[in-house]
Structures are given as C-alpha cells and as structure tokens.
Amino acid sequence: MDKAVKIPGPDHPITIERSPLRVIVKAGGRVIVDTTEALSLREASYPEVLYVPRKDVDMTQLERTSHQTYCPYKGECSYYSIPSGGQKAANAVWSYEAPYDAVASIKDHLAFYRDRVDSFETPNA
Q1: Domain topology for 14-121
Q2: 24, 73, 87, 110: which has the highest count of C-beta atoms within 10 A?
Q3: Model-level pTM greater than 0.85?
Q4: Which residues does 13 contact at the CB level (< 8 Å), separation at least 6?
Q5: What is the pLDDT of residues 32-58, one digit of tens each?
Q6: Domain ranges (residues) in the chain
Q7: Where does residue 75 fall: left (phi above 0), alpha (psi -120 to 50 degrees), or beta otherwise?
Q8: Cα–Cα distance between 72 and 6 in angstroms, integer?
Q9: How far, in Å, CA of 106 to CA of 5, rounded?
C-alpha cells in the first residue's frame, strides 16, 4: 500500500528558516555538534525543531539504527543512537535523508531529542 503524501498548507504549515542560534550538543561527555548553521523548522502547532548540518555532526559518535518512522509531510525518517550516551541516547537523532520537495532543505541535516542527550545548548539565544 502506498503511503499518503501531504503538502504543507494553511491547515498544516511548515516553515524552514536559517536559525541565528549557535547549537552545541553534548552526549557521553563529548561534543557531538557545534554549529552556527542550523535550520529552524516550524510545523503546525508543534514546537520548533533545530536541524543541524550533517557536516557539523561528529558522525563517528552516532550509530544508525533500524528504527524508522514516516511523516506524510516530510517522508521516511531514519534514526541514530549515540552509544557513548548510554540507553537514554537510543534513537536520539533523526534525519530525513530523502525529504519531500516541500522540505528539501532539511536534506543532509539531523535533529536531536533534547531529553536524550547530556545537553542541547543555544548559548546566544
């Protein structure tokens, strides 16, 4: 069965903008991300999500998992764990590796569950 694909609109808006914030993510006693190039994704009534460029993530600290989810607005979502972060860091990171056209700018970006890492800092907020 084909999965539904939905286009953002007035009933379910999605905006993506360059964030002015510096983002620092730490897990397992290590800095995993330190970037000033995050994207801010706002979707409908959900809280803002900061997506950080893959190039600014220490990918050696992440391990791809078999967990996947699907969003009809964004596409298939892949997950990563942070082994050095222990059990709480399981599936702590997600990425839309082939996002739908409406959100194409989040390709090559990752997002972090803030409660699954040691710290998620935005020092210039």
Answers
A1: 2.170.150
A2: 110
A3: yes
A4: 42, 43, 44
A5: 999 999 999 999 999 999 999 999 999
A6: 14-121
A7: left
A8: 5
A9: 17
